[in-house]
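Example record used in the benchmark description.
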Amino acid sequence: MDTVHDTHDTSEWPYATLVPTLHHIVDRRAHRSWRVPSGVRAFHNLLLIAGGEGIAWTNGVATPLERGMLVYHPAREAFGYESSRTQYLHVLGGNFSLAALSPGSEPPQCASVPALPLPTFSRPAGFERLLRLFRELHLAWGTGAESGMLRSRGLFMLLLDELRPLTLPGSATPRTRERVQEAAAYMETHYMRKLSLETVAAVAGLSPSYFGQLFRRQTGTTPVDFLHDIRLHQATLLLQQGCSVADAAAQTGYGNAFYFSRVFKKKKGLSPSEYMQLAHQ
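Model output (structure tokens):
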């Protein structure tokens, strides 16, 4: 069911022969009602979440967004975005097409690259460096001059080089990646229950320790934080609808309102009651 945390399959990544065409590069600070309607696009999309919170829709599946996340959607995949109504998204990135040269052919041929082997959602190391590169890319793109376009392509390729560690398969096989996806889908549909690491690992048919390592390697986050993100996203929707803090806690799998409030403030930066006041202004 849930494939949004998997690495996009491709037979190989012809890194040395990639030819990028940049369509639109942004440094966007969203507003209260900002959203990109979900739909299939002919281009790739790469975004770094620099601040705030929101949601990404991938083939109909919602994933919470927060600072430090990198989001990649390949061409012809259905995706969309929307910002939190209280913690407005700040994103950097944009849309692009990719081709790859085949230098061994005469004359050299150029073929479209449908997807890069990047995970849809990740938390790459070196966030501050990535942030600087994305900002430089946006500044170069904004000049509109020929030199700016050349510099933009160079910075984009440098970004891809920084992201190459995310493409390494590690020890995960297609079946183990599928098991992690099944566990992620289970948490998305059973978040209101009392779930332990052992319970979710059993769904994947893996030991808790190995499952935790594999889940983090594949998704960029721990199973516990992934579950918190799902629960808190659902809780914010309930609070926006006027639900009490106690009821929101009970309906999203938290044992009591105190623990719920503590996790909420740690993750969101404000208490549930403060969030309610902002949401209903």
